Amino acid sequence: MRVGMATDHGGFALKAELVARIRGAGHLGLDNLCWVYDSNHITIEGSTKVAFAEDIAARFLGYGWNVLRVGDANDVERIVQAFATFRGSKGRPTFVILDSHIGYGSPHKQDTAEAHGEPLGDNPEVILIASGSEVSLAVQAHEKLVADGIKSRVVSMPTWDISERQPQAYRESVLPPSVTARVAIEQASTFGWERDVGTAGRIIGMKTFGASAPLKELQKKFGFEPDQIVAAAGQLVGKK
Questions:
Q1: Cα(210)–Cα(222) distance, integer angstroms
Q2: Which of 210, 19, 42, 225 is closest to 136 using CA atoms?
Q3: Which domains are seen in the chain, by residue range?
Q4: Do residues 101 and 118 lie in contact, with contact meaning Cβ atoms separated by under 8 Å?
Q5: Local confidence pLDDT in tens for the 240 residues of the chain
Q6: How far is the C-alpha of 105 from the C-alpha of 116, rounded, in Å?
Q7: Which of 56, 195, 208, 214 has a CA positioned 20 to 30 A from the CA of residue 99?
Q8: Global pTM?
């Protein structure tokens, strides 16, 4: 069995109990373990330079891990190669460092702390809402929409509960009531998204139990592709 885990630069802190587990994994040669580390040098407060200057690659090498680095987190081919190297590695766990840009594609929020909880775009005609891995699809669609002259905003909504407990003024700054053209992307059930999309919006998701096929085929079938998101957004603003 292969085991994977992920963390980001901003939230990374090697507590004593975690260090013991990392050392133990290296000592035991747990080659079924792969740790993916998102290195974007930004915390929720600002740059990691304020409190973090450690050479994390050297540390994991010292613990007996196989360390790989992907210099561009958007380079899918290199990421696939890194995982292939992990699967072929024997006798040691693997630590994959992805150099990324938080808020990638945002005209004003990329590589800033504001990308953690503020809209990625200004004065939008359409809002793309997503959580988890779907955010990357929304950002890719956003870039295409902007290139087509459509003002787009990406909203990352990892939790409805916390969002709904925010002050109304903040919620309306993120999801302006005047912008009814909204597209939510959910690679699972569409249930619940109607609260933020409204009756004039569109939810790209699954309304069936699912299907069995290669990932790319399933994404195409259910509309989880940037071009299909762009088409849905364009229809809502009357430009497609």
A1: 9
A2: 225
A3: 3-99 (3.40.50.970), 113-236 (3.40.50.920)
A4: no
A5: 565 555 555 445 566 678 888 999 999 999 999 999 888 776 666 666 666 677 889 999 999 999 999 998 888 899 999 999 999 999 999 999 998 887 776 667 776 767 666 666 667 999 999 988 888 899 999 999 989 999 999 998 888 888 888 889 888 888 999 999 999 999 888 888 899 999 999 999 887 776 777 777 777 777 788 999 999 999 999 865
A6: 14
A7: 214
A8: 0.55
